[in-house]
What we know:
The chain contains 15 helices and 10 strands. By secondary structure, it is mainly alpha-helical.
Amino acid sequence: MERNRERQASAALTAALVAADPVTPSTVSRDLINQLRVLEDMKSAITGLQAKITVAFDMAQRAEQAEAGVPASERGKGVGAQVALARRESPNRGSRLLGFAKALVTEMPHTMAALDAGLLNEWRATLLVKETACLSVEDRGAVDAELAADTGTFDDAGDKAIIAAAKAAAYRRDPRSVTQRAAHAAEERRVSLRPAPDTMTILTALLPVAQGVAAYAALTRAADSARSRPGGEERGRGQIMADTLVERITGSSAGYSGIDLQLVMTDRSLFAGDPEPARLTGYGIVPAEWARNLVAQGKEASAPADFYQDFNVWLRRLYTAPGTGELLAVDSRARFFPPGMRRFIEARDNLCRTAYCDAPIRHIDHIVPWHQGGPTRLDNGAGLCEACNHTKERPGWASRTIPGAVHSLELTTPTGHSYRSQAPPLPGHRHVASDSP
C-alpha cells in the first residue's frame, strides 16, 4: 500500500513538472535532481534538529531525576536507550547518537551550522565528532572553528578528505592526546561476526598492528607451505588460510568440536525434503538443502576432504502449536531458568527481544522481575543482550507480557512510551500479527 502511494506521488510529481515546463524532457530531469539536493539539505537540517532535541531531552531527564532524588552518578542513564527506541535504532546505537548530539550542540557549533545549512550530512558530521573525541573541550572547539564551512574544508571533499583534515587539525592542537589515543587503542581490540550472502559469514578481528600482522603472516606461511608440498593442492591460497584459521582456533578441521550450533528446522525439511528454510543461531536464515547437508555431514564442493570428520549431530525436539508456531513446554519453580528452559528461550527468541535490537542473547531475563512476583515460566522469560537487561532494571522502566498467539512483550520507558516485540517465527510458520497498541 505504501509503495503504491509512493509510485502515485512520483507519477503525479513528474506530470506536474511536465505540465509546468513542457519544453524538453531534460527540464524534468534537471528539476528532479534539484529536488534531490533540496531533500538532502533537508535531511541534514533534520539531523541537526534531532541533535538539539536529543540534548534537550537529556537535560529534561536529568532535571526530572534530580527532582525525584536520583543520585547524581545515576542521572542520565537510560537516556540513550530511549533516544534509540524513538528513532527505531538499537539501544547500543542510542548511546552513540546521544554522544554525537552532545558534541555537536555543546562543543562544535561550526559543524552544527554546516549541518543545518546542508553542507554536511549526518555521516560526515559523525566523522568529525569521532576524530576530535580525544581532545579537550577547548581544543575541540578550536579544531571545529578551523574546519568551519566558510574555510572551504568541505568543498567537494569526500569522507577520506574530511577524516584527514580532522586528524591533521587535531594533531596540531594536541599531539600528545592523539598519541595517547593511539596507545590506548589496544583496549578496543575485539572480534565480531556478521552474516554474509550465500550462507557465509565475515569474522573480523580488531587487533594491535603487530598482532594483526603476525597472525596474517602465520596464515600466509601455512598456505604457502601447503601449496608447495608435492601431490598438488586443490584449494586456493585464500581457502587454505581460512581453513587454517578455523582449525587453529577450534582445534578441529571441522570447527564444530564441542560447540552447539543451534540449527532450527522443521521435521519436514529434515526428513522429507521440504524447501522450508532453517535458522542458524548467530547467522539467520539458511537454505533447507544446506541445513540437511550439514546435519547429514554431507560434503560441500568447497570443503576439504576431512571437513566434517569431528562433527557430531545431536537432535532436540521442539514442539510447536499447529496454528501459531508458538513453542510449548512446562513451567518451573526455580529462581533461575534451568538449562532446558534457557535453550528453549534462546531457540524461540534467537536475538535480543528489545524492539530494534538485534544483538546476541546474553541474559535470560524475567520479563516481570522475580522480586516483583514474576514467575520462572517460559511466557515470563525473554532473551536479552546485556545492555538491554541492565537498562530495563533502571527506575521508570517496566515490561510485561502481552496475551496472544505468539509470545509478545511490551517495554515501557520512563516517558510512558511503549514498544512491543514478538518472538520471530520459527522455520515453517508465518509471523502472526499482534493487536496494535
